[in-house]
Amino acid sequence: MPAVRKYRRETSEISCCLKYLLFTSNVIIWLTALVVLSVGIWAWTEKDMFRNISKLTFIALDPAFVLIILGTITFMLGLMGSVGALRENTCLLSAYAIFLSVLLLSEIGFCGLAFVLKDKGWIKDQATEGLRAFIKHYREDPDQQNLIDWIQEDWLQCCGIDGPKDWDSNNYFNCSSIAIGSREACGVPFSCCRRRPQEVIKNKQCGYDVRKEGYFTPQGMELSKIIYEKGCVQAGEEWIENNLIIISTVAIGVMFFQILGICFAQNLRADIYTQKSKWH
Q1: Which one of 16, 182, 206, 271 has the largest count of C-beta atoms within 10 Å of its C-beta?
Q2: In terms of DSSP H, where are the helices of 47-189?
Q3: Would the pTM count as exceeding 0.85?
Q4: pLDDT tens digits along 249-272
């Protein structure tokens, strides 16, 4: 009888658990980025930004542009990670790890810079300039308008930079605009108004005339009961102080998962090289 040969299947050096964990997580990132990118492109299309380049003056403050940039970067990252893991492509995995490392170092640098400059007013100055641009161009871009309305009404419950008077820098709300017939002159946007008890639909005209001299005298009402008098810069500082632990936890969590992604990619690359060395 011929001798029976026993064949032993060669074990792979590549961890399937590591490979598909990296692939699945990056597919989720890739799909999320695709949604964000699509929303940004749709918003630009609605504003006809692709044909009207002259509107790009304040592009850095355009929420749709920010979504496009974030979506593009995250899309590339997720694509490199998922395809690199699935196809066991060491070049893509290397690019993925480098990309994540650059992002991680940038985040650490930004956090360090923010900590160093927090007492020098640099961050406050940047926030002030950004809000000033939002207020000045409030009616020119619907996305910027919606963003500052969300900041004032839903997030910080504030009005203006240091207070309601800052809305004088907008042509529609400036008190001198009464002469040209602006109904919003000497007023503030509806997002500055406090919500009334049991109010379901907010009155969009609640901020009309509230900054007119003597407006509340005949009505016997106080400004603070109608609109927010606290500026958004002060409200933002207070919000950060009250939520510092949560912010720090989220930042550390994001960095932890980035480090985990770098380690997974590097370990998978090492496994692939080890497997290839067997073939040679």
Answers
A1: 206
A2: 63-86, 90-117, 122-136, 142-149
A3: no
A4: 999 999 999 999 999 999 999 999
